[in-house]
Amino acid sequence: MKKIAFVFLLLAMGAVMARAQESRQDISLSGTGIVTPYMAGTTDVLVSAKRAFGALGSYRFMLTPSSALEMNYGIDYQNNFHYVISNTNNYLITARMQEISGAYVRYFVFKNFNPFLEGGPSALIFVPIYNSGTKTLDAKQQTSVGAVWGAGVAYEVSPSFDFRVEFRSFVTKVPTFGDTALVTNRWYKIGLYEPVAGIAYHF
To answer: Is residue 18 part of a domain?
Structure first.
């Protein structure tokens, strides 16, 4: 009887140790490219912006072997927004965009390749940079809520590391930087082809 109890105790301890060794969390650091589309408002405002580059930090917690919850923080170096009102008045604003978002991630495991889909809420913070590229000194910081979604693939290099490549997109209201003259009454689809590439560490 004691031997049987001892065997069950060893099995239980082995299961606990195996569970403890499973990687259920990971952090990743990636480079990003942000493509902001041209937008014609329902008003007489037209908006365009240049491409921007930045970085993205992410944390994922595995709920199951095929699903996870994710938190993200991203920031770009700078972007140049160009507003044209009635085809005559030009407003130039250089800004830095920050991202705070969360998402549900669904994995599809094929050996070392792990394709995934994700989606969830986001907040984008547009911060004016007062330099020679900003001609509208009344521009103010603005936070715009919306959603983020994406698809990508993670390649497992080892049990501790993987490389990730992904395309992401945001939908949010076109920023006005606190100026009612820049209202478009439109929603942006930012980064429809926003490439993201980086490395993740599992622990």
So the answer is: no
The Cα 162–Cα 202 span in angstroms is 8
Q: Which amino acid is at 159?
A: P
Rounded to two decimals, the pTM is 0.84
Tell me how far apart the alpha carbons of residues 166 and 103 are, in angstroms, rounded to a whole number: 14
Q: Which residues of 35-46 are buried (b: 16+ CB within 10 A; e: fewer)?
A: bbeebebeeebb
3-state secondary structure of 10: helix
Provide the number of structural domains found in the chain: 1
> What distance in Å separates the CA atoms of residue 89 and residue 92, rounded to the nearest whole number?
10
Give whole-number Cα distances, 8 to 11, 14, 15, 18, in Å.
5, 10, 11, 15
Residue at 160 is within a domain? yes
* Alpha helix (H) residue ranges in the chain: 2-21
DSSP string of 40-79, one letter each residue: E-SSSEEEEE--EEEEEEEEEEEEETTEEEEEEEEEES-E
Residue 41 structural domain: 24-202
Q: What is the pLDDT of residues 124-177, one digit of tens each?
A: 999 999 988 888 878 999 999 999 999 999 999 998 999 999 999 999 999 999
CATH code, domain with 32:
2.40.160.20
